[in-house]
Amino acid sequence: MTEQVLNVLGTELIPCSYDPLTGYFRDGCCKTDSQDHGSHVVCARITQAFLDFTLQQGNDLVTPRPEHRFKGLKHGDKWCLCALRWKEALAAGVAPPVILESTHQKALEFVTLDQLRSLA
Predict the structure, then answer these.
(1) Torsion, CA 100, CA 37, CA 109, CA 14, rounded to 10
(2) Which domain holds residue 85?
(3) Residue 2: which pLDDT band, with cuts at 50, 70 and 90?
(4) pLDDT at 70
(5) What is the CA angle 35-88-101, rounded to 5?
(6) Domain holding 54: CATH number?
(7) DSSP collapsed to 3 states, 59-107
(8) Does residue 40 form part of some domain?
(9) DSSP-derived 3-state class of residue 21
(10) What is the pLDDT of residue 120?
(11) Residues 97 and 2: beta-carbon distance below 8 Å
């Protein structure tokens, strides 16, 4: 029997996106393990403001990178974000909305449930 993976609400983690295929493991879910140093655990609906912000921080999420099975993101896509980048975007006023049921409980090590709920 496999261990149940929980979201920030304490219920079973549901997939974030299969198109584009997201997740540290590229399985559609915001699952994580000790090798995921970025903690890609926040499922968010991407906005242009966030894409612009993260590009300014040196992380280009728009340009396709086929070698990493990454077709580039656009406004409206759902994606598993690094928890600290989402927190930075929150402080800058450009954090994208989150899907709580698809956000891994590990996100609570970086942000509060109230912060996540404020943009759910």
Answers:
(1) 20
(2) 1-112
(3) low
(4) 85
(5) 65
(6) 3.30.56.110
(7) CCCCCCEHHHCECCCCCCCEEEEEHHHHHHHHHHCCCCCECHHHCEHHH
(8) yes
(9) strand
(10) 95
(11) no
Tokens of residue 72, six digits: 């580039």
Instruction: Give the closest residue to 50 by CA, choosing from 88, 83, 23, 17.
Output: 88
C-alpha 80, offset from chain centre: 2
**Contact assessment for residue 5 and residue 31, using Cβ atoms and an 8 Å cutoff:** yes
SS3 sequence of 22-55: CCCCCCCCCCCCCCCCCCEEEEEECCHHHHHHHH
Determine the residue type at 99.
I
Handedness of CA 83, 25, 23, 73 (dihedral sign): positive
Number of domains in the chain: 1
The verdict on residue 118 lying in a domain is no
Query: Does residue 32 contact residue 39 with C-beta atoms inside 8 Å?
Result: yes
Tell me the pLDDT tens digit for each residue of 28-41. 999 999 999 999 99
- What does the pLDDT average to over 90-118? 98
